[in-house]
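User: Let's play a game. I give you a shape written as tokens, and you guess the letters that built it. Ready? Here's round one.
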């Protein structure tokens, strides 16, 4: 089984973070459940670190409205045209603020993968919005984009 950090993050997000649980889950219990489910320990540790880093971001205040984001060559290599187009679309449609976009980019660049897939970018955006205060409506809109694009299999 070749699991990666995205698999762990999506599992934790769907099972614990986005679920309406009566009490907050215990990190040790989640960790043990992930081990029992067969996820590799290094990926679990990286996923926990990544999730913890979401809470460390200070509020970013844009200097001026109407500014345009210019991507560095490093960022452009990690995010193809389609992914950058998605970020622009999300920002223009009011789902992502410029500040949240910067957090998303920071979180994207934290992964070791050479190129981030469109699907993984959507999950990263969803997790960032979930972690930010006062982003409930944006989160709900993004959640629709993520889950509505899941393949439907006909039997």
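Assistant: Ready! My guess for every position:
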């Amino acid at each position: 089984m070749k699991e990666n950090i995205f698999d762990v993050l999506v599992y934790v997000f769907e099972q614990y973070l986005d679920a309406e649980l009566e009490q907050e889950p215990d990190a040790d219990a989640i960790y043990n459940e992930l081990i029992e489910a067969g996820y590799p320990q290094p990926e679990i540790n990286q996923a926990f670190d990544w999730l913890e880093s979401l809470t460390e971001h200070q509020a970013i205040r844009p200097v001026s409205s109407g500014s345009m984001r210019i991507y560095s060559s490093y960022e452009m290599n990690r995010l193809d045209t389609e992914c950058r187009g998605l970020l622009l679309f999300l920002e223009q449609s009011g789902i992502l603020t410029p500040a949240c976009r910067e957090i998303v980019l920071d979180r994207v660049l934290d992964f070791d993968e050479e190129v981030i897939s469109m699907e993984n970018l959507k999950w990263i955006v969803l997790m960032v919005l979930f972690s930010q205060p006062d982003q409930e409506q944006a989160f709900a809109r993004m959640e629709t984009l993520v889950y509505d694009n899941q393949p439907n299999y006909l039997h």
